Amino acid sequence: MARFRSFRAVLLGGLFSLGLGACDTPMATGRIAPEGGPQLATVPAKGTASTLDVASWNIEWFGSTTNGPANETLQASNSRDIIGGTDADIWGVAEIVDQAAWNSLESQLTGYTGFLASESHVTSGSTYYGSTEQKVGILYKSSIATLLGAKIILTAYDADFAGRPPLEVKLRVTLNGVTEDIVVIVLHAKAFNDDASWQKRLNASNALKSYLDTTYPTQKVIVVGDWNDDVDTSITAGKPSPYQNFVDDGADYAFPTRALSLAGSSSTVSYSDMIDHHLNTNEFTAAYVSSSAEVYRVDTYVADYANTTSDHYPVLSRYTFGSGGGTTPSVTVTAPNGGESYAGGSSKSITWTAANVANVKVEYTLDGTAWTTLTSSTAASAGSYTWTVPNTATTAAKVRVTDASSATVTDASDAAFTITVSSTPAQVILNEILANEAGSNVAGEFVELVNVGGTSISIAGWTISDATGVRHTFAAGTTLAAGKAIVVYGASSGIPAGSTNAVGASTAQLNLANGGDSVILKDGSGVTKASYTYSSSLSGTDGVSMNRSPDASATGTWVLHTSISTLQSSGGKRANGTAF
After folding, report:
1. What pLDDT, in 10s, does the model give residues 250-296?
2. What stretches of 18-156 show up as alpha helix (H) in DSSP?
3. What is the layout of strands, in order, in the sheet containing 528-535?
4. Which of 98, 209, 228, 465 has the largest CB neighbor count within 10 A?
């Protein structure tokens, strides 16, 4: 599904310049909210008795009479019906303005208790949240959870959180005969798609990760709320996700909602991005019910939802707890599931749902008979796998996802999809240069080429030179497929173990100067195909490469690799460490 990010960025910028960016206008005039009326909407339950069901929801300007939905009585009734009907065990909420309106809502939700960040029993709450500001809060079922403590955290980064530092809540949960303490953090990040706002989200993300790494290295922690950005790539044009630091640390953290981003889901009424997320520590991820994360489209049940209730949809995730959760394994392919048309060489996501399966094998076929393995084992809980579509025309393509430990638990696309071969010519660019190798072994210097065109190309006889002379000539038979990369290292000894798209320089050196140099790519006839002259500002740090931004873009600017990724370099891979 196309995401049309550039259009969204322009649209958002226009709206925000008109003052329509509600998330970052925290002050509002509230009034005593009226009591909710009779039930107006019947919302089907999503919670189950045997699982811990977590929800987050930005309830647009709740309780404000000057912003958000105009009819506060109707908004309150719809909010009550949605929360009560969904039947989640824990709700993290954002954009609550009026305390009295909140008290009224809470009183109508039988079995729930909760509080806002500004309330007296939240440590530092009233210091950072005023009576007329947008506030985060929490609701939980008193039958399964008791409060151990609550406080405002990361107050030193108040400005980076747009004046809304996160609310941390410790709960003791008893479910299925098991009692365990968990930590729930509710946040409402800085809004808007300008560079300054992106930088604040990045600062906040780094602060949050450092806090979690240090404070809760082995605890079950879930962070929920309105993150105001996506976790695949940023809503800010040309920027990576500000939360890439968590994505890259897959051993310790996971966004179960990232699968929704990759599938093209949206968590708001008007825009195409997934900006409301759930983040788990690995201890919480172990209990995650595979593929349970979802955007709950309650607009199906609430009339004129966008105008009467909120501009965000609730986001849900589910976790096993104690003996609950069921035992029957299952896998279901959700995309591509038949009828799609993909361009050869493009990057697409294979998505699935799974239950009680640890790892899955992912395959594809171009003829319905012969199957090619993309990965023999990847976490089933990820719910998605990004692949480069083969540059082979076919109308009979399918994908298949199988339990890695049981071939009988499997599912394939319901019908065939089409792969079209692009007529776009090949275009080979310089994408990454490591002039200042880690340590002192110059064999580790490298130059990465990427074919950003639509067809493969022979690069036999092509050369790579520095300002002094030719350093490498590509061997006969060397081709570079569409969307793929090849890396030339200073010498074969510098090629990392396991690299399959790398060669050593034919002269056994690249001799790239740390103080500045040129890299020139020429074809076999001596025609310059790409070149770049860099300064010491991009080559002055040991082990840190220079890379195109955006990554693999023919028009991208050159930046330090660490400005677009948590990795110092990524020779032969995308800047985020994934395969081309």
Report:
1. 999 999 999 999 999 999 999 999 999 999 999 899 999 999 999 99
2. 72-86, 99-107, 125-128
3. 470-473, 463-465, 516-522, 528-535
4. 228
Q: What is the pLDDT of residues 186-195, one digit of tens each?
A: 999 999 999 9
Query: Are 190 and 163 a contacting pair, CB within 8 Å?
Result: no
CA-based nearest residue to 208, from 258, 167, 261? 167
pLDDT digits over 19-40, tens only? 334 466 444 433 333 344 566 7
Cα radius of gyration rounded to whole Å, the chain: 26
Residues 6+ apart with CB under 8 A from 398: 336, 338, 364, 365, 368, 412, 413, 415, 416, 417
* Backbone torsions φ then ψ of 53, nearest 5 degrees: -110, 120
Which distant-in-sequence residues (6+ apart) come within 8 Å of 184 by Cβ?
54, 90, 92, 138, 168, 169, 170, 171, 221, 222, 223, 224
104: left (phi over 0), alpha (psi -120 to 50) or beta: alpha
As a whole number of angstroms, the distance between CA 21 and CA 225 comes to 17
| Nearest residue to 154 via CA among 108, 179, 117 | 117
First to last CA, the chain: 19
Can you read off the two tokens belonging to residue 231?
């976790």
Can you tell me the distance from the alpha carbon of 362 to that of 400, in angstroms, rounded to the nearest whole number? 6
Q: What is the DSSP string of 312-360?
A: B--EEEEEE-TT-S----EEEEEES-SS-EEETT-EEEEEEEEES-SEE
For the record, the structure tokens of 332 come out as 């279901």
CA distances from 339 to 3, 332, 336, 418 (A): 19, 17, 8, 7
> What whole-number distance in Å separates Cα of residue 572 and Cα of residue 580?
8
By DSSP bridging, strand 384-388 and strand 294-295 are: unpaired
Residue type for 468, please?
T
To the question of pTM greater than 0.85 for the whole model, the response is no
Among 2, 218, 187, 202, which residue's Cα sits nearest to residue 94?
187
Task: Tell me how many helices (H) and strands (E) the chain has.
Answer: 9, 33
Q: CB 158: neighbour CB atoms within 10 A? A: 15
- Rounded Cα distance between 44 and 462, Å, is 63
